Amino acid sequence: MGSDMILAASSGGSGGFNLLLLLAVPVVFYFLLIRPQSKRRKEQMQMQSATEPGARVLTTSGIRATVVSVDDDGLLLEIAPGVEVHFVKQAVMQVLKDDEPEELDDEADDDELEADEDAERVDLSKDEPSEVDLSKDAARVEEADLDDEDEAEESKPKAKAQAGEKPSA
């Protein structure tokens, strides 16, 4: 037991390495994690404070809008023609460039979606008579058509017999 202490004391050269490693870890964390994150935060704050009316922005919730007016702590955004919403400045994630023809792409996508939906569309309007009858009588008629007539006739007497055998309360 005493010889173990002597061996531990004689390996004192690694103490300097341990101290260097202990000091190097926080420095590495600072340069790889803390400094880039604070730089990104400053850029985001500058971008949010520099937003001007007329700019196209993308909010953190994914809404693309146009800035109508800027207050001290908030923005008035137009998300659709005639629809204006108040947001805080921190909700702006990105200022979009005016070079992007978003409206043309959206219209083309809408046309494609409408063509796809027309093929799969089911009309549920109340004005026209529905092709699908959801009443219970129609379901019973369909079941009778699907089953053989013999099976349908056999099941009816069994149901009546079972109901008759049950004692009444």
TrEMBL record:
Gene from which the chain derives: yajC
Chain positions covered by the region annotation Disordered: 98-169
Start-end of Acidic residues biased regions: 99-120, 144-153
Keywords: Cell membrane, Membrane, Protein transport, Translocation, Transmembrane, Transmembrane helix, Transport
Membrane topology: Single-pass membrane protein
Origin species: Actinomadura nitritigenes
InterPro entries in UniProt: Preprotein_translocase_YajC
SMART domains, per the entry: YajC
Coiled-coil stretches: none
Superkingdom of the source species: Bacteria
Pfam families: YajC
Transmembrane regions listed in the UniProt entry: 15-34
Protein name: Preprotein translocase subunit YajC
Family named by the database record: Belongs to the YajC family.
Protein location: Cell membrane
Residue spans of biased composition, Basic and acidic residues class: 121-143
